[in-house]
Every structure is written in C-alpha cells, then in structure tokens.
Specification:
This protein has 483 residues and is α/β, with parallel strands linked by helices. Helix content is 38%, strand content 20%.
Amino acid sequence: MIKVLSVASEAVPLVKTGGLADVAGALPAALAGEGVEVTTMLPGYPAVKATLAKGTRAVAKWDDLLGHPARLLAGKIDGNKLLVLDCPALFDRPGGPYQAPDGVDWPDNWHRFAAFALAAAEVAMGYAKGRRFDLVHAHDWQAAMVPAYMSYADPALALPSVLTIHNMAFQGWYPAQVFPQLGLPAGAFTVDGVESYGGVGFLKAGMQAASAITTVSPTYAAEIRSAEFGMGLEGLVQARGGDVSGILNGIDPAVWHPAHDAALATPYDAASLDRRTTNKRAVEAAFGLDEDDGPLFTVISRLTWQKGMDVLPAVLDHLVGNGGRLALLGSGDAAIEQSFLAAATRHSGRIGVRIGYDEALSHLLQGGADAILVPSRFEPCGLTQLYGLAYGCLPVVARTGGLADTVIDANPAALAAGVATGVQFDGISEHSLRAAIDRTLALYRQPDTWRRLQTNGMAADFSWAASARAYAALYRSLTGAKA
C-alpha cells in the first residue's frame, strides 16, 4: 500500500472554485482500488471546519507557523482521510478561498499558502506523530511550495513528490520582498530555487523541486513546452524533459450520468435519446426560448478571454440566422457579459442568458441542449466537453489541450470509421467559429449521423479509473513500490 499525502487548496465536496477541486476530491476513492491510500490536506477555511466540526481531533500544533499559531485537525469526508490546517489568522475569513467578498485577491495570499505548504511539507516528513507517508502529491501554485520546502530540509526526511499543474496561467508570483518571510535559507533565492523573473514564483519553485510534474491532459503537457502556452516557464518545462507528462482528468459517473440525474426533467440513456426532447423543452422554458426542434447550442463557462468568450458574441447573429439558438450560463468579464446580454435582447426567444452559476441548471443544459460550444484559446483539460459526451450533447471544441485529447472530430475519415464524437476547429476567430457552427448545423440535419455521434460519445469511458491507474503507476515508479 502506497501512502500519499495529497495537498490542495480546494477539494469537493468541501470547497470548489474550479476543476482542481474535482480532481483532488475524486482521486482518493479512485486510487483506493490501485493499492494507494490518499490523505488529503486542505486549508481550514470556515466552510471546511464547519463541515468537519464533529469527529475531528487535533493531531499536531505549531506555536509559530510563519508567524502564526496553528493546529492540524484530522477527520474524514465520504470515508476518505482528511487533514485540515487550522490557522485562523490566515484562513478564517469571509469570501472565497483566494479572494475577499469584493472579489479582490487577498493581498497576503503568498503568506497564506506558503504557511500551508510549509505545514504540509513538515507533516509529510513526520511532524504529526503516527502519520507516515511515502509520497507527496501537490496541486497547483497554492501547494507547489511543498516540494520546494522539502528540498531544503533534511534529505533523509524528504519524500518523492508529484506536482500537478491544472493551469499554467496561475503561477503564484510575488515580489522579492516576500522572500525573507518564507522561512527558507538565503541560498534558495536563485534561479535553481524559488526565484522567478526577479521575484518569488511558487509554481516555478515546485516545478524545480518536484520529482515529477504532471498536467491534466497529454496535449497540454506538450503545449506548455512552447512560448505560446508555457507562460514564461516553457524553458523549465523543456529542461525537466521526461519528468513532465500528462494524465487526463476524469468525471464522476455517480454525479454525471443522464440515466440517474435528478436535475433532469427526465432521465435517459443511449437507447432512449428521444427522451432528451423533454429536457430540451425544460431548457427552453428556463431561458425564455422559442419552442422548436431546431438545433439548440449551450455555453456553460467562465466568460473570459481564455475561454474564447470575447469572440463568440460576434458570431451569434450568424448562429441565429442559420436556425440555431443559444442558452448560456456563466459569468466573468463585465464587458463580455454585456455583449451576450445585448445579443439576447437583439434575438429575443432565440438567445437566452443567465449570468451566474447554477449546478442543477448546468446538468439540465447538458441533458437538453444539442451541442455545447467550448472555443477555448487554451484548455489544460476541460470538463464541460466530457459532460457533453456523457449526455449526448455534442461538443464543438477548439483543438487544444484536453479538448483535443477527448473529442474525436467528425471529419470524413472518422465518420466513415464510425468513431467521431464531436466537432473540432483550429484557431479562435470569427471565421473558425462560424465554420464550426456551420459544420455542426450540417451534421444536425443528418439525424442518423447525429445520433451515431451522440451514442459514440456516451459510450466513451471518461471515468477516473484510467487516470487512477496512470497516477498509481507514476507513484510506484517514484517510490519503488511494486504493483
């Protein structure tokens, strides 16, 4: 049995802002069948401590953790082992994990997550009595300093480590003035340590120190070797060479499955796709759309430049003019939000927009819309296209990152072979988006072909099983454990 300490700033079902939480929350159960016991360590946000109020106990304490007292609480969630860093001065605050209630990042995030990483590194190396680990798995910049702290500790105590990059765009970079307060030796502030472009780079430090680096899809692992996707760290990615690999994210079929999804107006499976019409009617009612059997597109996304949402509004007149409709659920950049709201006003009954997020409504959209648009400029993995495949909601995606790895384009060869599952396109531009929409509309007008695309996608296995096998194999290679 390999014992892994998984260190993350969020994990479902306790706290979530993005896909990182899905991965950190799903892996423990998936890895249990692979001979891996995972203990997840999280910061003690108010919501986390409130959920775990009963049945937790303190197993370690710090009188001075980078300037603050702290305790380590132990408990369980859904049967999985959990450790929580209870440091009220740093984490007992309103708002989200990283931002104040006004949406602005906490100015001391560097302090908060340095302390969290230092505590996790010490726990990994035996600070909490009776808790032994074989390997540390750190997620994103908030936990990336764990391998860095271990690299400056007693070599006899340091453990092998994996750092998973969920999005290279978020690196945790801070000015050099914070370095003296990190509890590291002076020699750590070098290009081979934590220094990055004149400041302190949390993600960069972890990439330098980790035994292995993974991303959340094979294509993204290749993309970040280039300047276009490497966000200034492509040189380090190249230098790490074979230590960098991609392991595709999965989805939880217990949560995302149209045959037993309580958020749908009616359940269905691949043998009863006609039932999707009932869900389509429910989407139309929820978004104030005209009722018809023409193609209904959906967008479930953050409304940001990365997601290509600045370009999509310009092609909505074309989408509607060719018989399509759109139901959009999301929030983000205020100017982009306004452009979609203006399109909804311009095309009343054909475009419906909900600013915000609603988990149940996102399920209904996957179960009732015909196609989901995912025009991301870069996408480390992506989850909405996986949900679309599982629900027979055809993904129309940019050919990048995990989108390229999970959707098989409906080109003539794939159609002839009977393996296509969606539509891919290159480049984020008005021209490429219009062309992708036109291809999707043409496929929709071929009912037999469309149904085959749906059933192909629904037959694909994007559960966590394959990902768990890959992570377990990586852990074994780093620890020397046998299968």
